Amino acid sequence: MCGIVGYIGDKPAVDILIDGLQRLEYRGYDSAGVAIVNGGLSVEKKQGKVKGLSDTINRAELQGTLGIGHTRWATHGRPNDVNAHPHTNSTGKFAIVHNGIIENFTALKEKLITKGYSFESETDTEVLAHLIDDIQKNTMLPIEEAVRQALTQVVGTYGLAMVSADDPDTLIAARKGSPLIIGVGENEYFLGSDAAPLIEHTRQVVYLNDGEMAVITRGGYQVKSIDNVPLEKEVHELEWDLEQIEKHGYEHFMFKEIMEQPESLENCMRGRISIQDNDVHLGGLIDSLDTLLAADRIIICACGTSWHAALVGEYLIEGLARIPVEVEYASEFRYRNPILREGDVVIVISQSGETADTLAAVHEAKRQGVPVYGVCNVVGSTIARETDAGVYLHAGPEIGVASTKAFSAQVMVLTLIALKLAKGRTLSEAEFATYLNAVVEIPDKIREVLLLDEEIQGLARVYRYASNFLYLGRGFNFPVALEGALKLKEISYIHAEGYPAAEMKHGPIALIDRFMPVVFLAMKDSTYSKVLANIEEVAARQGSAIAITDNGMEIERLCEYVIKIPRTEEFLTPLLAVVPLQLMSYHIAVMRGCNVDQPRNLAKSVTVE
Ligand code: F6R
Asked: Closest ligand 1 atom, CA of 352?
């Protein structure tokens, strides 16, 4: 949440910063701003999207080769021009951009007010600017030392960047709980809250860890701990390239990412499935396999869509490998003092690898001495680095705020883990081979589902004005019902609920009338006849039943719309069934005029609690 970008080098900073902010906009779009050191310090900031800022700034006044920028997802203070970052000290000498929450900002603010400081904004970040100013004024310390001392007084989280008119050759960055990456170029350095703004300039990056501060000058960078101990940092190579973060003619990233799923799943499976050896190879878990096989219990923690993938994982690992699994919201797990025992293994799932609650679940597992493995998409992300081992999704960058291709890749990775754990234990070689062949066919089957796009657009046209939706599924497709409902509500703002189909009779059935579309996931599996009975119940109450099914005839009699998807093994059906739901949400949202890539109030990567 909130995007940070910084530049120091020999090129004009302003366009690098604005381009960087545009690439980072999925992290927040409440306001945007830049500060440039140009003899003095010039700050331009504005409520709304980066484009608004870009269209109005006076570039002639922003000539300078050192600067910082910010795109905001509001926590403290409404989205407006005043609360937009960067924030300055009272003399306007230095500027700060910040991601995170300063929890003791009220106490710090009161102290500063008694010292005569006045505040323009409602933000916690402005407190930092005045605090650094106060320390520097009283101690005459160099700016980086004043920042370091200020940070020792702060309770909370921060990823911050700072520039000062008095230090035209220095960019300062510090991290605790909010990611920051330094991009290393030729005689120039970049800063980003993730890799997106860096990719077009350099692939060489340095990841800052929590409790680290960087002083970046035109000649190099030095990283120290907040306790002032110099640190040697490894330079890493970024995996993603510019190609992957462009829209390539698609109107929206979300649609592009839905359409990319056959390829993203092929990338996710590449090198991991050997039909010849009848085996699955998960390099990242090779040394952890025995621990997983011996586990008494696997606890999977995640948030949002990743939590839905985790639920599918529960059905997969329990169903195929017969190892008990529990799925937890990371946000609950971290605070309810969970009981972990020897024999427990924690798996965390996170597309971004930066979700604050999921990271806290990693810390809780580590605190209790339990092995913790990660399933992440972003290579080098904090969760990927802090877990004991893990598997990357290799789904490529996901820019659309609503997660689509990451969900299918998460389910694919969990499928491969489940099969690996089941091989030779609960599955015979022949059964395993049948299942593996079915997995390999999934990308082509998704290609077939994607051909239904026009049909799904038609469906979207019919239901675009509905105010409520129900999504019902059973077994492997109960989590898909939850995911379908989440996709619809987050991008089209239509209220939607997902339920296990059989739960309908325990309450939600009261909602059903002719204005209530009910989407059924009705696969020809062990629960098919039961779901069919549920559809009958909806039809009897004049609800509009829509079915996603791999079956025919009888369901058509009962439903207003039937979307037919290809057959596959029962445990693989979520990978196919979710696609029509993603498409339906997308088209409904577009038809309602919603900004699907930047839905209101949301941001990709929830790095605050
Ligand atoms: C929904 C969505 C969110 C994320 C959640 C976890 O479309 O994108 O619900 O799934 O914020 O994010 P990650 O997977 O990055 O930990």
From this structure: 15
CA nearest neighbour of 371 among 337, 335, 347: 347
| Ligand 1 atom 16: residue of nearest CA | 350
Kindly state if the Cβ of 306 falls inside 6 Å of ligand 1: yes
Q: Is 303 a catalytic residue?
A: no
Q: What is the extent of the structural domain holding 399?
A: 249-446
Sequence-separated (6 or more) residues with CB below 8 Å from residue 305: 351, 402, 403, 406, 407, 483, 486
Considering the domain architecture, whether residues 37 and 155 belong to the same structural domain is answered as yes
Cα–Cα distance for residue pair 87/131, rounded to 1 Å: 12
This model's pTM is above 0.90: yes
Catalytic residue among 2, 301, 376, 594: 2
Whether 408 contacts 264, CB under 8 Å: yes
pLDDT tens string 179-219: 999 999 999 999 999 999 999 999 999 999 999 999 999 99
State in Å: Cα 540 to ligand 1 middle: 37
* Total number of domains constituting the chain: 3
Helix residue ranges, H only, 25-160: 50-56, 105-114, 125-139, 143-152
CATH number at residue 470: 3.40.50.10490
Using one digit for the tens of pLDDT, what is the confidence trace for 331-341?
999 899 999 99
Residue 494 CA to ligand 1 centre (angstroms) = 19
Listed residues 425, 446, 467: the one ending a domain: 446
- Closest atom of ligand 1 to 410 CA is 14
User: Could you tell me which of 57, 112, 123 has the C-alpha nearest to residue 84?
Assistant: 123
Question: Could you tell me the distance, in angstroms and rounded to a whole number, from the CA of residue 257 to the centre of ligand 1?
Answer: 15
Q: Is 487 a catalytic residue?
A: no
Task: Say if residue 354 is in the same domain as residue 499.
Answer: no
Residues 380-390, mean pLDDT to the nearest whole number: 95
Q: Locate the ligand 1 atom nearest the alpha carbon of residue 355 and give its number.
A: 16
Residues 255 and 188 in one domain: no
